[in-house]
Design goal:
Blueprint: E1 3-7, H1 17-20, E2 26-31, H2 37-43, E3 55-60, E4 63-68, H3 71-86, E5 95-98, E6 104-108, H4 138-149, E7 154-156, H5 169-183, E8 188-192, H6 197-200, H7 212-228, E9 234-237, H8 254-265, E10 271-275, H9 287-295, E11 306-311, E12 335-340, H10 356-363, H11 376-380, E13 391-395, H12 411-422, H13 428-439, H14 444-465, H15 496-500, E14 506-507, H16 524-531, H17 541-544, E15 547-548, H18 559-584, H19 590-622, H20 637-642
The structure holds 4-O-methyl-alpha-D-glucopyranuronic acid (GCV).
Length: about 650
C-alpha cells in the first residue's frame, strides 16, 4: 500500500473518487455515506444489504476500499481485510460483502467479584474490580479488539450465579469504566441480575415480581444503570435453577420474572436474556425434559425484548448430546443459543478439543419443525420463525493467563465461536483452516497436518470420555475426570449413576416410550428416528436407550466390546495427535511446540485414565473380559475411586 485513507466524513464533505486516487495503490476506509456519486459505478453496491454491521471490501483499480454504513461496520471490514491478508488471500481482484445474521453475539463470563471464575481454567478473571474504575488494564483494550475482530458485540461481565453487589453504585462505576473501553469496539456490557437483589441490596422484604415496590425498585435500578452506562445491553438472568432465587419462590412464573425486568429496560432499548437452564430436585421426571416442560407452555407470553437463552443440549454442555428440543418448539419466542466455550466437560484447558465441530453439529441438526431443513441454525438466526431479534452466547474460556485461554488451541474455540455467532452456517473446516493460517502460518504442510487434527479432536474426546451416547459421567462438583460410580446422596440428577443406569442387564438411559419418553419433545420425524434402534444414530444410542451388554452394534460388535473399543479408539486418537504434533515440530517455533506437546501428554494420560476407570467400573456390571485391542488397566478400580481433587480449578466453593 502506498497510502491509507481513512475517511470518516467529519467535514461533512463527500469523498471524491478522484481524490482518493484509487489508481494510487491505496487503502480507503470510508462510510458509504461519505462516498460521492463517482463511486457508485465502480461499486455497484446496494448499501442496504450492509445493514448496521455489515461491510464491503473491494479492490478497484489496484487499490482497496473498505466501506460500510456505520463505524462498527468499517471496523469489522478492516479486521476482515487484515485477516484475509494474513491468511494469504490475493487482493488483486478481492471482493467480499459480509453481514452478521445473528444480532446479539455475546460472551458470557462466569466471573465472580473475587476474581475466581466458575468453570474457568485460564487463571483468574480479567476484571480487576479492586483497581477499577481508575486503572484500565491494557488487557481490557486487547480483549475488546480481539472480540471485535471476530464480530462479538456483547459481553456479560459476571457469573450467572450472580452476586447482587454488582448492581450497587460502587460496582456500577467499575462496570461503566469497562463499558467505556468496550464501546469503541462495538461491544455492549450486560450484567447478571440476581433475582433477590431488591432484598439483598434494596432493603425490601420480598422480590416478588408482582409486587409494586419490587417492580419500582428494578425500574429505579435500571435508570441508575443507564446513567452509568448509556448503552447498557441489559440483564442476563439465571432464576430458579441450581439454588438461584427466582419468581417461582413467590409462586410466580418465568414470564412474570422476565417481563418485570423487560419493562424496566424497555425504555432504553435494553433486553432481558432469561436462561432456560432449569431443573428441580423436587421434580422426579427426567432432568432432560424439565426445561422444555417449564418453558414451552409460555411461548408467546414473553415481552418482545426478552430472549430465552437455551443451552445447546438438554442436560449440560456434554461432549455429545442431541440438540436441545426447545429449539424449534417456541415459534413465538426468540431463543438464544448458549454454547460453552470453556471446557468444563471437555478436559478443562489441558485437552486440545476443537469445539466448532460440536457447535456446527448442533447448528446443522434438523429440528423438522417446519419440514426438512428446519435447522437449529435457522431457529437461532431467527429466519425460521421470522424473528426480529436473535442471539448466540458463548460461556467464555478467557482468563488472565498469559495466553488468555490456558491452552493455546483453546483460542480456536473463542475464534470459532465468534465466526459461528456471526454466521451460524459457517463451516468448522473453514474455521479450522483460517485459524491455523492466522495463528501459525500459511505453510500448506502445516495446514495439512493440523487441520485434520483439529477436526478429529472433538470425536476423540467423545470416545475417551462419553462414547455411544453416554453422558455426565464426570466426578461430581469439579467435573474433573471420570467418576461413573459417583452416587452421592442428595441430588440424584448430579450423579453419574442417574445417567448411565448400568446394571447387570445393560447400560443407558431409556428415554423412549418405555422410559422417560423425552423423545416426545422432538418432532415426530426425530422421535421415530431416535426411538427406533435400527435408525437411532449410534452416537446417541445410550442417550435414548437402555440396552443389554450383548446388544449387537452396527459393526457386529457386542455393546460391551464396542464400548470398550470406543474408549480405546479415543486414546489412540490422542496418540495420533501427538504424532502429528511431532511432525509439525520443524515448521513451528520451539516454544510453541513444547507448550502444546506437554499439554498433549497430559491429555493422553487423562484419556487413558478415562478409559481404564470407566471400563473397570462398567465391567463390574457386564462381567465380561475386555476385547482384544484394549489393554488391561494397570491400576484397579479402587485406585481410581480413591482419587480426590479438592483444588481442581473452576469449582464453586459451595459445591465441594
Ligand atoms: C454457572 C452447570 C455448571 C455450573 C453452572 C450451570 C449453569 O451446572 O456446572 O457451574 O453454573 O451449569 O449453566 O448455570
Amino acid at each position: 500500500m502506498r497510502s491509507i485513507w481513512v475517511y470518516l466524513g467529519l467535514l461533512n464533505q463527500k469523498l471524491n473518487f478522484s481524490d482518493a486516487m484509487m489508481k494510487d495503490n491505496s487503502l480507503v476506509v470510508a462510510k458509504v455515506s461519505s462516498l460521492n456519486e463517482g463511486w457508485s459505478l465502480k461499486l455497484g453496491l446496494d448499501s442496504e444489504k450492509l445493514g448496521k454491521e455489515g461491510f464491503y471490501i473491494k479492490t478497484i483499480d489496484g487499490s482497496v476500499l473498505v466501506t460500510a454504513n456505520t463505524d462498527i461496520g468499517l471496523l469489522y471490514g478492516v479486521f476482515r481485510l487484515l485477516q484475509s491478508i494474513q491468511a494469504g488471500h490475493d487482493l488483486k481482484d478481492f471482493q467480499m460483502l459480509d453481514t452478521p445474521t445473528v444480532d446479539l453475539r455475546m460472551l458470557n463470563h462466569w466471573d465472580n467479584l473475587d476474581r475466581t471464575v466458575e468453570r474457568g481454567y485460564a487463571g483468574f478473571s480479567l476484571w480487576n474490580w479492586q483497581k477499577l474504575p481508575e486503572y484500565i488494564d491494557q488487557r481490557y483494550i486487547d480483549y475488546a479488539r480481539a472480540n471485535a475482530s471476530i464480530g462479538i458485540n456483547g459481553t456479560s461481565l459476571t457469573n450467572v450465579n450472580a452476586n447482587a453487589l454488582v448492581l450497587t453504585p460502587m460496582y456500577l462505576e467499575k462496570a461503566a469504566a469497562l463499558a467505556n473501553v468496550f464501546r469503541k469496539y462495538g461491544i455492549k456490557v450486560y450484567l447478571t441480575a440476581r433475582f433477590s437483589a431488591p432484598m439483598e441490596i434494596g432493603g425490601l422484604e420480598t422480590a416478588d415480581p408482582l409486587n409494586a415496590d419490587v417492580q419500582n425498585w428494578w425500574i429505579q435500578k435500571t435508570r441508575e444503570i443507564y446513567k452509568w452506562i448509556p448503552d447498557f445491553g441489559g440483564f442476563l438472568v439465571k432464576a430458579n435453577s441450581e439454588g438461584q432465587p427466582g419468581p417461582r419462590n413467590y409462586g410466580r412464573t418465568h414470564v412474570d420474572g422476565a417481563n418485570m425486568l423487560a419493562k424496566a429496560v424497555e425504555p432504553y432499548g435494553g433486553v432481558v436474556i432469561w436462561r432456560a437452564f432449569v431443573y428441580s430436585e423436587e421434580d422426579e421426571t427426567d432432568r432432560a425434559k424439565q426445561a422444555y416442560s417449564e418453558f414451552v407452555p409460555y411461548d408467546g407470553k414473553f415481552m418482545d425484548n426478552v430472549l430465552v437463552q437455551v443451552k445447546n443440549d438438554p442436560i449440560d454442555f456434554q461432549p455429545r448430546e442431541p440438540f436441545h428440543p426447545m429449539f424449534g418448539a417456541m415459534p413465538e419466542t426468540p431463543l438464544m443459543m448458549e454454547f460453552q466455550i470453556t471446557q468444563e466437560y471437555l478436559g478443562f484447558s489441558s485437552h486440545l478439543v476443537f469445539l466448532p465441530k460440536l457447535f456446527e453439529e448442533v447448528l446443522q441438526s434438523d429440528t423438522y419443525v417446519q419440514g426438512k431443513g428446519s435447522t437449529v441454525a435457522k431457529v437461532v438466526d431467527g429466519s425460521l420463525h421470522d424473528k426480529s431479534i436473535s442471539g448466540m452466547a458463548g460461556v467464555s474460556n478467557i482468563g488472565n493467563d498469559l495466553n488468555w485461554t490456558g491452552h493455546p488451541f483453546a483460542q480456536a474455540n473463542w475464534f470459532g465461536f465468534g465466526r459461528l455467532a456471526w454466521n451460524p452456517e459457517a463451516k468448522a473446516s473453514d474455521i479450522a483452516e483460517e485459524w491455523i493460517k492466522l495463528t501459525y502460518s500459511q505453510n500448506q504442510e502445516l495446514i495439512d497436518l493440523l487441520k485434520p487434527m483439529l477436526l478429529d479432536s472433538r470425536e476423540a474426546v467423545v470416545n475417551y470420555m462419553n462414547p455411544l451416547g453416554l453422558h455426565h459421567l464426570f466426578d461430581t462438583g469439579h467435573h474433573y475426570g471420570s467418576g461413573p460410580w459417583v452416587n452421592n446422596p442428595g441430588r440424584p440428577d448430579w450423579n453419574p449413576t442417574y445417567y448411565h443406569n448400568a446394571d447387570a442387564n445393560g447400560i443407558g438411559f431409556d428415554r423412549t416410550t418405555t422410559g422417560s419418553n423425552a423423545l416426545e419433545q422432538y418432532s415426530k420425524e426425530l422421535a421415530e428416528t431416535f426411538g427406533n434402534l435400527r435408525t437411532c444414530p449410534e452416537e446417541y444410542l445410550l442417550w435414548f436407550h437402555h440396552l443389554p451388554w450383548d446388544y449387537t452394534l452396527n459393526n457386529g460388535n457386542t455393546l460391551w466390546d464396542g464400548l470398550a473399543l470406543k474408549y480405546q479408539e479415543g486414546v489412540e486418537q490422542v496418540s495420533e495427535m501427538i504424532a502429528t504434533w511431532e511432525n509439525a515440530r520443524n515448521i513451528i517455533a520451539d516454544n510453541q511446540y513444547k507448550e502444546v506437546k506437554m499439554l498433549l501428554d497430559i491429555q493422553l494420560k487423562e484419556a487413558k485414565w478415562w478409559r481404564d476407570a470407566s471400563l473397570l467400573y462398567f465391567q463390574t456390571f457386564s462381567g465380561k473380559e475386555l476385547p482384544d485391542g484394549v489393554p488391561k488397566p494397570k491400576k484397579d478400580l479402587e485406585y481410581y475411586k480413591s482419587l480426590k481433587f479438592p483444588f481442581a480449578p473452576g469449582i464453586r466453593p459451595q459445591w465441594d
